[in-house]
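for the writeup, i need someone to sanity check this before i put it in the appendix. the sequnce is what the collaborator sent (i think, or maybe the updated version? ugh). structure was predicted straight from it, no edits. if anything looks off just tell me and ill rerun, i have time this weekend
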Amino acid sequence: MARSSDRLKSVDAPQNRGGDDAPNAVWFKPIMFGLMLIGLIWIIVFYVSGAKLPIASLGDGNILVGFGILFLGFMMTTRWR
């Protein structure tokens, strides 16, 4: 009985070329660290000014804004290569 040449060929596993190992864009790291610093500065200014700055009408909501900006920066660290 003749053997099929297709069955005798070795098959390589497909390689993942999804671009996961590509480096980040040049702007990624400055934006990431910038967001973290802006969030931290926002919170510090809120506490030092006695809740009069950055936006007085937000009151304690300034803490949420500061932590939100800070959180965006930290979320970007999960994509940093």
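Residues 25-79 form one domain. The chain has a mean pLDDT of 87.
thx in advance!!
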